[in-house]
Prior knowledge:
Blueprint (H helix, E strand, L loop, with lengths): L1 E6 L14 H8 L9 E5 L7 E3 L5 H7 L14 E5 L5 H4 L1 H4 L5 E6 L1 H10 L2 H5 L4 E6 L9 E3 L2 E9 L16 E8 L4 E6 L7 H8 L3 E5 L7 H4 L21 H5 L5 E5 L14 H7 L2 E3 L5 E3 L1
Parallel strand pairs: 3-4, 4-5, 5-6, 10-11, 11-12, 12-13
Antiparallel strand pairs: 1-2, 1-14, 2-3, 7-8, 8-9, 9-10
This protein binds D-malate, manganese (II) ion (MN) and zinc ion.
The site of zinc ion has 6 residues, from helix 1.
Organism: Streptomyces adustus
InterPro entries: Metallo-B-lactamas, PQQ_synth_PqqB, RibonucZ/Hydroxyglut_hydro
Keywords: PQQ biosynthesis, Transport
Amino acid sequence: xxxxxxxxxxxxxxxxxxxxxxxxxxxxxxxxxxxxxxxxxxxxxxxxxxxxxxxxxxxxxxxxxxxxxxxxxxxxxxxxxxxxxxxxxxxxxxxxxxxxxxxxxxxxxxxxxxxxxxxxxxxxxxxxxxxxxxxxxxxxxxxxxxxxxxxxxxxxxxxxxxxxxxxxxxxxxxxxxxxxxxxxxxxxxxxxxxxxxxxxxxxxxxxxxxxxxxxxxxxxxxxxxxxxxxxxxxxxxxxxxxxxxxxxxxxxxxxxxxxxxxxxxxxxxxxxxxxxxxxxxxxxxxxxxxxxxxxxxxx
Length: 299
Ligand code: MLT
Ligand code: MN
Ligand code: ZN
């Protein structure tokens, strides 16, 4: 399969419009350090049609940034767009509004995410004069057969009950936030995409072991980073993002896994947004990398 990395930043992107922290200032000085909100475009090794994993507020620029995703003169001007969601966060869903020129948007998500988007964001109501939304339930791995999207098999690994702030009073559900497992039967390769990891589980350990490439939550390098940088009064884990480093960090879980591991969803406070930060070399020594915008992973 082909994974096109559309963006690798957490909420706000790098730089974020209202922020002048060292990471944001560095990205203003060095445009190569800019990161758009995390998302992917994926297609199988031979079939032509791609789907999006998350639809970010940057979606139009992101599609434009990959020559392989731009429309060409011979193609349908109002295509069907396919979107698979890991959660209902604004940074992963606002792009659905920007895709209103599509003739139809097929959306795969879990039941609580569907409810948040329809009952709270009024997505169906607002978009109905523009396009048709076609909702599909995203099956959980191991409990139902996977969804077939363009020849790829998709399943969700439940990660947490963390709801978006705009839906904080919605009922708890274990699949508010999920990892996407994407399997290509043509190449027998699997990718795992988990941009918001609140807690580690045995199920996730198994999903990593079954994957060849893992794109995973790299919001914060250390647990105290949000507090130390004045970004929040809470720790990274209290904000629903396991840090990379530390006793409960994801690096300990993932190092030496033999899989291609790429951190994504980087917050602008994360020292890793500076390509010269020594943490890059240290993580590389553990077999862990950092995803970059506009790269393509072949699996
Ligand atoms: C997150 O990743 O924690 C959310 O996107 C934060 C938010 O926007 O509330
Ligand atoms: Mn986010
Ligand atoms: Zn900043």
